[in-house]
Structure formats: C-alpha cells, structure tokens
Specification:
single chain, about 260 residues, alpha/beta, D-Maltodextrin-Binding Protein, domain 2, twelve-stranded mixed sheet, two-stranded antiparallel sheet, elongated
C-alpha cells in the first residue's frame, strides 16, 4: 500500500448530512482505496503520480459531492485493498463486491461489470462454460481476484490452482498444462493471441461487480454511497467515464433492485 499524491476537489457541502462527512472524511480528506492491478479501471498514471481511469474518477466524484479533498491510497491488487479495510487505511474502496469481502466492507450495488470467462488450450474437449466444472479438470486463477473468489464459492467438481497474480495464473496454465484459465475477458483476449489454437469460451461464468465500499462501521455513509452510485449510473456519468477512458470490456451495471416495501 502507498499513498498517491493528494488531489484537491471542493464543492459546497450544502445538503450533505454532517454525520456522513464525519464518517467518510473525519480529517477533511476522503481516502480512496484504488486497486492498481485492474487494468480496465486504472488505465494510466498522471504526471504527479495519481492513478488515472474510471475508478479514481469515481472516487474523485464522491469527494466532490462531499466537498472535501481526496487522496488515493493505492494497492497492488484487490486482496491487499480489502485487507486495508481492517486496518482503517481508507474511507472508500473501489473493488469487486464478493461475499468474503462483504464481511468487513459495506458495498454499494455495482457501478460497472466485467465479464469473467475461461480460456482453454488447443485441442481441449471443453466446449462450453458448463463443461469446465467437471471432476479432474484443473483451473488456473488469480486466487484473490473477485472472479477467483467467485469460483472458490461456486465450483463443485473442478480443482482451482490459485496464484498471486494474473501473469502467474497464465504461467501456471501453460507450464502445468491445466485445463482452463479463468480471467476477465479483456485480458484473455490478449492471452489467447500468445497460444496457437487456444480458445476463449462463449458466455461467462460470472460478471465481476465493481462497487464502492466503506468499512462496515460507516453505516450512514454506506447508505449515502449506495444512493450516489445509483445516481451516477442513471445520469450517464459512469457511461461517460467508460467512453472518456476508452475502456473495452467494461459495461455500466444495471440499476440496483428496488427494496421490498
């Protein structure tokens, strides 16, 4: 974890419950946890070292609405970002919403989704997503990625081979001659070009739900964040960010289900 340079964004606080500002920015600065390994949501680095992309822009908009400064707290992967919640290192974190993480983090509904699917080697008898979860099959995955956590929760028969990074999951897939490589479709599109005869399966086994979270102790702030995320989706703000950063393979998440009355 390291702190990226501070970026100042100010808006009149009128209309914001002071309790929300106290929970999210008790020192006057919103600390936003950013996962640098998500190449769809962090696409570049500014001259001053700030991360650039959809994720940091979402965090900046939250700070703008609160009328406070923001500083980016940057992590090399989503697992490290999730761990930072327990240590109180950030106030909001942009990360895939998964049940394991929800034990310590209160998530908004997703603001965008990324398809997760499989790559299979040349000559593989696997023809569909349903064929992968069979006895004897071995799947390479980055263990603490959102899609890796989803597989951990949902596979019944196939064995997961977990690695510490996306690159090492590809290496394990090739070197150990595994049956499938799990990953985000945009990354697999690049990987398949490196393996003659390899195929990406149609469809998806999950869609990674990229959400905004805050430590569970911030109950009032969590409700406010959830409302802001829905507004940013409905207004076209998220779609505009995806277009601005020219990201392929990222889509705006659907509206959150209405609460039962």
């Amino acid at each position: 974890m390291h702190r990226c340079p501070q970026r100042i964004l100010v808006l009149n606080r009128s209309g914001i419950d002071p309790a929300i500002i106290t929970e999210l920015a008790p020192t006057g600065t919103l600390r936003a946890g950013i996962n640098l390994s998500n190449f769809l949501l962090v696409t570049d680095k500014a001259a001053n070292g700030d991360p650039v992309g959809v994720s940091p822009d979402m965090a900046a908009e939250m700070a703008r609405r609160l009328g406070v400064a923001t500083t980016y707290v940057c992590y090399p992967d989503p697992g490290a970002l999730a761990d930072g919640a327990k240590r109180g290192e950030w106030d909001i974190g942009n990360i895939g919403a998964e049940p394991q993480r929800a034990l310590t983090i209160a998530f908004s509904a997703a603001y965008c989704e990324i398809e997760s699917t499989y790559l299979v080697p040349a000559g593989s008898p696997i023809q569909s997503i349903a064929d992968v979860d069979r006895p004897g099959n071995r799947i390479a995955t980055k263990g603490r990625a959102a899609y890796g956590l989803w597989l951990e929760n949902n596979l019944s028969h196939a064995k997961l081979v977990r690695t510490d990074s996306i690159d090492s999951s590809y290496d394990a897939f090739v070197e150990q001659e595994l049956d499938a490589l799990a990953g985000l479709r945009p990354r697999l599109i690049a990987d398949v070009k490196r393996l003659p005869g390899a195929r990406i399966l149609d469809g998806l086994f999950s869609a990674v739900q990229q959400a905004v979270g805050t430590p569970r102790k911030n109950a009032e702030a969590a409700a406010w964040l959830a409302g802001v995320v829905e507004d940013l989706k409905a207004s076209g703000f998220v779609a505009d960010l995806i277009a601005k950063h020219q990201v392929k393979g990222l889509s705006v998440a659907p509206p959150a289900p209405k609460a039962a009355s």
